[in-house]
Amino acid sequence: AIGGFINADNPTWEGTATELIEKLELDIKPNALSLKLNVNAGKLYNLYFVQYNNSRSHKGRKITLRYDEDHPIIVEPESDTDDTAEDEFQYQPVDGNPKATVCYVRGDSGNKSFHDMTDAEKENFLATSYPA
Asked: What is the domain range of residue 120?
């Protein structure tokens, strides 16, 4: 839900867990949402480039979600050339950042941008590109 809510068109959101639950129409308690966000912050960034931050002040707890438009991985088809084997990933620096061109996604054919991939395809891409 958050990956579809925070994106290039809606890059930031700030508020409480309760407000986020209302905004996304979720059926979860605020403390459970905060726990899930804390546990899955890395996955949220890796899959959707959404940075999660929580802070606490005398006014209460605040959640900040921000889409990282300058994320270090830009995954998009480079061109329609057949220079690369179907299952090969190419890495090229772009303005000092790595750029990955996805030439093939297992179980699919043709070029597909990262944001057009299903969650399972994104997880597979990240797992095979950046093994633990």
From this structure: 74-129
